[in-house]
Amino acid sequence: IVSYNTKELLEKCLRSAKAATKSLKVEIFVVDNDSRDDSAQMVKEKFPEVNLIANAKNVGFSKANNQAIKKAKGSYVVILNPDTEVMPDTFKKMKEFMDEQNNTAMGTCRVEYPNGRLDPECRRRFPTPWRSFCHFSGLANVFKGSGIFDQYHMGDVSPAGAHEIDACMGAFMIVRKSAIDEIGMFDEDFFFYGEDLDWCFRFKEAGYKIIYTPITKIVHHKGASSGIRRESEEISKATKESKKRAFKESTRAMYLFYKKHYKNKYPFFVTWIMFVGIWLLEKHRMTKA
Hints:
The chain is of the alpha/beta class. The chain has helices at 7-20, 39-46, 61-71, 90-100, 129-137, 139-142, 177-183, 195-205, 240-261, 268-288; strands at 2-3, 29-33, 51-55, 76-80, 84-86, 104-112, 163-164, 172-176, 209-220. Strands 4, 5, 6, 7, 8 and 9 form a six-stranded mixed beta sheet that branches. The chain has a three-stranded parallel beta sheet with strand order 1-2-3, with helices on both faces. Helix 1 packs parallel to helix 2 (39-46). The relative contact order is 0.14.
């Protein structure tokens, strides 16, 4: 769990995780990225059994997760956001599910907002130029459920059953440690966004499967650290400056991902259109900050 100024939510997350791991042999890591709300001190005092890594500065989501992955001894690694709460059966059911899967490197469960609505980011396809255009232009909303226009968040596939996906999000991932040893850890060029998508892309490129299953769920108070989501704006402690950085990092991640994985697959004019689109999106998002 990588924490950054989410003390109260982190405490709830750890309490839920502790309750959900009673029957399992686990180790829990919290990597605190120099929070200013005494998050690290809270972990020391209330959860002395947790492995705490307190960074002297904010090193980003990728690097902080890698710090813990390097120390992890388990056969599975779970990446969990501090603004989440797991169910009592989440870890047990997901471990059992992964034990039964062949050639599956990563699994995820249903991720819900506090109001019970599905967080669509928990199962998605890779953001090709066409899928990105349909998503950001609103065509996906106009043609909900369409296999042509609503591909980005897999609107054409029901979330009611288990199925293979391109990617899940870093709020909850259960990953086979042997697969991590082969593929590598998070790419630290991604500071705050896009690292989960990049990781999934690399696993899929190597021939591994990523599976979504609704056999259990977690609750996600999305965006509490960044402060740029409507779902958590009332509980976020993010400052204006941290919001600006979050907006910038969200679009920088798009640029990095496209440059790394798609630039050589598409003609120059498609790449130019994509980069202009990302630039315009950043300008739009910065006005919100």
